[in-house]
């Protein structure tokens, strides 16, 4: 089955860290760029980070640059998001998403169901 | 950053009616714009990319048009399952990839 399954979310205090994981299956993971997109409670979608298929290039939203690190393991079909120095405004449902085509179109045709991150004292 | 402004915020329509959703970009995104549908407690679903190309499996009642700064998503005749929130997304000027604020299509 073609799917993405996120894990690793939870509740953390401000300043803390979390590592999100996304397990991919049913497609040739190594061929596709991937991204993380978040959605704060009752709000719209916000792009967080993206990574090329070979990990050669990573991209970040200004709001997370320097605090979050995206990475991937093409051997084990995994995508990661290391989140440090977390803030209350990082509270959201975090989705991983797959690029539509192997040639970097940056539209997303496969999404996981999301993992909830809550930053609160 | 390219800001995408969607209107209206909420569209109240009945099944069978035509829905017209707007997405305006703060600068030209050429035709590099996508539309997504999101239902409550679900992940977004890609409907349209490159302004007017339907994604695999998307019904023909969904159509996209526009270029540069003005884009439209049209649902020709609303089905019960089409009541949802719709987002546009650009990939022309990035990073960052940006999404619009969304239009909620609700049952009148």
**Shape call of chain A:** globular
Secondary structure: helix percent of chain A:
under 10%
Report the sheet-strand fraction of chain B.
Answer: over 45%
* Assembly annotation: heterodimer
Order of helices and strands of chain B: EEEEEEEEEEE
Which blocks of ≥5 consecutive residues of chain B have pLDDT under 50?
A: none
**What is the residue-averaged pLDDT of chain A?**
97
Total strands of chain A: the figure is 11
What is the makeup of the main sheet of chain B? 7 strands, mixed
Low-confidence stretches of chain A: none
How far do the termini of chain A sit from each other? 39 Å
> Helicity of chain B, in percent?
under 10%
Structure description:
The complex is a heterodimer of chains A (121) and B (108). Chain A is mostly beta strands and 121 residues long. Chain A has no helices and eleven strands. In chain A, strands 2, 4, 5, 6, 9, 10 and 11 form a seven-stranded mixed β-sheet that branches. Chain A starts with a strand and ends with a strand. The model of chain A has no long low-confidence stretch (mean pLDDT 97). Chain B is an all-beta fold. Chain B contains no helices and eleven strands. In chain B, β5 and β6 form a beta hairpin. Chain B starts with a strand and ends with a strand. At the A-B interface, β5 and β10 of A face β4, β5 and β10 of B.
Keywords:
heterodimer, A: 121 residues, mainly beta, seven-stranded mixed sheet, four-stranded antiparallel sheet, 0% helix, 50% strand, globular, B: 108 residues, 11 strands
């Amino acid at each position: 089955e073609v799917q993405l399954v996120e894990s690793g979310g939870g509740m953390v205090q401000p300043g803390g860290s979390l590592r999100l994981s996304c397990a991919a299956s049913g497609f040739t993971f190594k061929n596709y760029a991937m991204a993380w997109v978040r959605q704060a409670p009752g709000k719209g979608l916000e792009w967080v980070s993206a990574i090329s298929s070979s990990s050669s290039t990573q991209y970040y939203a200004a709001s997370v640059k320097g605090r979050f690190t995206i990475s991937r393991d093409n051997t084990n079909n995994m995508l990661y998001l290391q989140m440090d120095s977390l803030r209350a405004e990082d509270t959201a449902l975090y989705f991983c998403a797959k690029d539509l085509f192997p040639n970097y179109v940056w539209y997303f045709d496969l999404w996981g169901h999301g993992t909830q991150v809550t930053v609160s004292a | 950053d390219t800001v995408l402004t969607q209107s209206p915020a909420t569209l109240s329509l009945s099944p069978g009616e035509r829905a017209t959703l707007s997405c305006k970009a703060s600068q030209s995104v050429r035709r590099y714009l996508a539309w997504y549908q999101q239902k409550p407690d679900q992940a977004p679903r890609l409907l349209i990319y490159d302004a007017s190309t339907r994604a695999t499996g998307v019904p023909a009642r969904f159509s996209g048009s526009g270029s540069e700064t003005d884009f439209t998503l049209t649902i020709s005749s609303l089905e019960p399952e089409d009541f949802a929130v719709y987002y546009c997304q650009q990939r022309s000027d990035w990073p960052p990839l940006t999404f619009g604020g969304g239009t909620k299509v609700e049952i009148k």
